[in-house]
Amino acid sequence: MSSLSEAPGELDRVDAAGEVAARAEAFRNWGRWGEDDAIGTLNFIDAAKRVAAAALVVDGETVSLAQSFDEDGPQRGWKKRNNPVHTMTGTGLDHARDPYAQPHGIGGADDMIVMPLQCSTQWDGLGHIFDRGFAYNGRPAGEVVTTQGDSATGIENAAEAIVSRGVLLDMGRHLRPETGELEDGYAISAADLDDCIAAQGATSAVGRGDVLLVRTGQLARVRRDGWREYAGGAAPGLSLTTAAWLHRSEIAAIATDTWGFEVRPNEFDVSFQPLHQVVIPNMGLTVGEMWDLERLADECAARGRYEFLLSAPPLPITGAVGSPINPIAVF
């Protein structure tokens, strides 16, 4: 493991397969929590961790970390991902036509929503990405995820797991204090992460069982300038070389304010989401994307504190490989 570079510029840009394979094998957690394990690094969150996280609540201030779920969202149809379509199936207009159609004049409204599970703020489940024919824990991909869903690591397995200490690393403000926003294509390195922790202070130390939130500032920029290529286009994000850092830190999960978590364009001449390929099916790391970290960053900066209780459970959708969420930070 020590021979693998943690400097983005030292990657062999023409050997994506070799660079990915070396890290997949070095940082693989298959069997670490047993052959039947379904939640990977979320196992790092235990009862003691949650008790300690609860002690971080001082004044009860809550911050939602979710983008809106509506038709004005970021998606533009790539991989059949569209924005949510919200439809009312019962309205006040229906009631007004005949207010006494139901006993004693009661009326009501109902609605439904149609959307991909990864169209806005969400978790990538462990069945979302495969590596050379295998899913997390060495299971054959074709046996794990079928038309019936993910039979081994469906997102429902994490429904009670993701309550822990959250830590924000505001990479945008740390690296670009003049704008607070990293430019598209910036590859965040392990050294960048460590430098940010040192600059922010002790409350941003990252360790076992933490949920790490990385703000790049891209969401703030696209809200100002328009979505454009936010979904699937260029973005700041983590370098493939951070895989070693993510593994040794023993974090439970990680989330960013970008569409794809890792730097885009990716760091090789020909590749697609290589860090996903290492950390999800091999490390068993739960990855969150499109989180709104703007108000959280303001709160952390104002308080001089970058740790908080975080509750971010997925919907228990049986067999799903991802889930929309409304994460809540509590100070």
Tell me what you see in this structure.
There is one protein chain. This protein is of the alpha/beta class and 331 residues long. The protein has one domain: Putative cyclase (Glucose Oxidase, domain 1, 3-Layer(bba) Sandwich). 24% of the residues lie in helices and 18% in strands. The strands form 5 sheets. It has a 9-stranded mixed sheet, sandwiched between helices. A two-stranded antiparallel sheet has the order 2-3. A hairpin with a 2-residue loop joins strand 7 (145-146) and strand 8 (149-150). The longest helix is centred in the N-terminal third of the chain and has 11 residues, at 16-26. The radius of gyration is 21 Å and the shape is globular.
List the helices and strands and how they pair.
Blueprint: H1 16-26, H2 47-54, E1 62-64, E2 85-90, H3 92-97, E3 110-114, E4 122-124, E5 134-135, E6 139-140, H4 141-144, E7 145-146, E8 149-150, E9 163-170, H5 171-175, E10 187-188, H6 190-200, E11 211-215, H7 218-225, E12 237-238, H8 243-249, E13 253-256, H9 274-283, E14 286-289, H10 294-303, E15 307-311, E16 322-324, E17 328-330
Parallel strand pairs: 9-11, 10-12, 11-13, 13-14
Antiparallel strand pairs: 1-17, 2-3, 4-14, 4-16, 5-6, 7-8, 9-15, 15-17
Helix pairs in contact: 1-9
